[in-house]
Amino acid sequence: MGINRFIFLSISKNFNDILIYKTCNLCIVICTSTGYNKRQMYIVNIHSPIFKEMLHMSKNANANALIIGFAMFAVFFGAGNLVFPPLIGLMSGSSWEIAIIGLAISAILFPIATIIAVDNMGGTVQAICAPVAKWFTKGYMVMWIIFILTCGVPRQAGVGIESGLLSVLPGLQGNDVVRIALLAGYFVVVLALTFRPSKIVDIVGKYLTPFLLICLVVMIALAVFEPLGTPMAPQVDNVFSYSFLQGYQTGDVAVGIAIAGMFVASIKAKGYTDTSARHKMTLKAAVVAFLGLLIVYGGLLYLGATGSSMFDGKMDQTALLNGLVHALTGSTGNVILGIGIFLACLTTTIGVGSTIANLTVDLSDGKIPFKYMMVFVCLFGLAEACIGVQGIIRYTFWIFIAIYPVSIALMLLGVFCKYVPNHGAWKGTIAMATIIGLFEGLMQLNKSGITNLPLDSLIQLYNHIPFAADGFAWVLPSVIGFIVGTVIVKSKGGDPYPMISKEQ
């Protein structure tokens, strides 16, 4: 029996959503999705090229999920994420299991959910911002580019060289010429690995992440099988609340909104162009990243808990991690830790650097090429890392404070987009989150000594907002904005989402 190859090739190239029924030694019946919960059936010769292609893509589905998931893990797992779990474990002591739950929700589930949120809305920052307004999309993207360019990229480079490579090569510490040369080499590597945008996720997921995981797993395995001691009583009153807030304050949700498009584009490039297939692959990769982060964060947190009788909770986070690793493995462990810090910084720099370039390409409508922007990102990052990032961070950190509530609101709306009644709900929620975020940004400017704005009366009003003391002042106003926006648009009637394509 032959096959209707022309018809079969005309449908989706995604063969991961298929049911196969063998009818004889030569033929099978394939039931495949065509979108919108519809399926079509085809009789296919098992020796045909199209069937071999189907089997190849089906077998590659799990491998693709693993590679993309590893890349997600590596980009989220920056050097800062390496040093804070041990402190949470130290403060949580014998209640470390509860601490892991709180940390898993705020520092793992929420950031990973941003990838799903962006994918749900079409796969780009522009798509998830579309229900709000065009001006909001551009403003959000510009603020992110400024913050990542001035803080994210140079800071990761500085930490990667100073706390990573130079900690492994102590004889070279204190030599500015060597430090600058290593920084230059660092950005040459970043540039070389990002010059092919479609391959960035594969490079990070296939080659860099496995080495990073090996370093981390060695430390975690030693912490589990040869613990430093017995965890002591918790040093905080509410372990869950403490760990949740510590994870929330890492800011990875905002990073996730910016970098999600890179992962969705990689999934599309692998042939998952159908919306349903793309969603499934995104979810699979997200599960891989979640499990990887859970194992690593949980292991580092447990390491801190086992050292709760040996170290002071007032220690600097980096000093605490170095002390724990040295007590566990001696100087060998510090070498492994240094390599791990370097790789964590490198993978994060690759992710956020390419995100800046992609956002700039989109903002300029393609007038600024990706490669040119990557060269600029690396040169700017090198210059700032050589001079020192603390001064510039002082002037730009307020941007991060301002956009963080907006980013979390976007994540929640994107994840639950099917249940958001209309674009008025988006506008109302984001408007209130933006107002609160901008005010918190102004407070940060005053706190850092850059400005001296007369905010005292407004701060008193702000302090009366529920959950403001814990950093969640945006929650109640955003809920009110959601309700008011929904009611206003419903009362006017018309298309609830006039700006979003039906495919999304």
Structural description of this entry:
The protein is mainly alpha-helical. It has three domains: 5-47, no CATH class; 60-388, Hydantoin permease (Orthogonal Bundle); 401-504, no CATH class. The chain has 18 helices and three strands. It has a three-stranded antiparallel sheet, with no helix packed on it. β1 and β2 form a beta hairpin. α6 (134-168) packs across α7 (176-194) and α10 packs across α13. It is globular. It starts with a helix and ends in a 12-residue tail after the last helix.
Helix and strand arrangement:
Blueprint: H1 5-10, E1 18-22, E2 27-35, E3 38-45, H2 49-76, H3 79-92, H4 96-120, H5 125-129, H6 134-168, H7 176-194, H8 200-225, H9 239-248, H10 252-269, H11 275-306, H12 317-329, H13 331-363, H14 370-387, H15 390-415, H16 423-447, H17 456-463, H18 475-492
Antiparallel strand pairs: 1-2, 2-3
Helix pairs in contact: 2-8, 2-10, 2-11, 2-13, 3-4, 3-9, 3-11, 3-12, 4-9, 4-10, 4-11, 4-15, 6-7, 6-13, 6-14, 6-15, 7-13, 7-14, 8-11, 8-13, 10-13, 12-13, 13-14, 15-16, 16-18
CATH architecture of the largest domain: Orthogonal Bundle
Report how far the terminal alpha carbons are from each other. 39 Å
Rough outline: globular
Helix content: over 70%
Biggest β-sheet: strands ordered side by side in the sheet: 1-2-3
Kindly list the characteristics that best describe this protein.
disordered N terminus; mainly alpha; single chain; Hydantoin permease; 3-stranded antiparallel beta sheet
